[in-house]
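Aim 2 progress update. The chain analyzed this quarter is reproduced below.
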Amino acid sequence: MATTPMIPPAAANPALDGGAPPPPQMVAPPPPGTDMTGICFRDQLWLNTYPLDRNLVFDYFALSPFYDYSCNNEQLRLRATHPLDLSHLSKMTGIEYSLSEVLEPHLFVFRKQKRDGPEKVTPMLTYYVLDGSIYQAPQLCNVFASRVGRALYHISKAFNTAASKLEKIGYVDAENESTSSEPKAAKETIDFKELKRVDHILASLQRKLPPAPPPPPFPDGYAPLSTEGEKSSDSQSAEPLPPVDPIIDQGPSKRIKFSA
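Predicted structure tokens:
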């Protein structure tokens, strides 16, 4: 495997210090679960020098602050072994990086996971290299929290806008009522198109609604009270009356008639 010259995490620059660089010191990696989604890493000099493919992308990822130098991949690199060789990683335990998705040369997805056995791994974090820039993928709980917070913000803003408009309308109505001298009947104008629309909606609802069910039968031994007028009317009309919907069939609508 072609390797690239590695830069120690905290190596000093001899040109700036004027002498030999001190021994490299290992920087403590961020703990698992650290939110580094606001960081973007890109090394344009490395991209101009080496091709970004599946063989060298891990060396490029190791330059970023997302890389944990205590992982198993770093131990394989010290043994001159490919750091993504699964045949060696499956025999080790601890923190490791695996290349889960590859779309050369634009997208590479790394998954940081904890290996407890050959077949037992626990995913921890996800990173991706998009056109040479390295990012940390946000966790699902953070995505949900962000979406819910954004939705609540817009809903609250909509309610505040509606409340302010309603208050303004009420203020204008009160001001008009106090200043205008027109009678109340002249102000209350009715839109006949709106009346026809409401009648159409009510008629369509009446056609869709089923008729009311018949009342339940009286229990045995119970005789309802009936007057003589009801008895005579029952004897005259032998045919049973159709069931009446107590909600819909309330007689003709009582509307105000307007004369032209």
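The longest helix spans residues 140-179. The mean pLDDT is 73. These observations will guide the mutagenesis experiments scheduled for the next reporting period.
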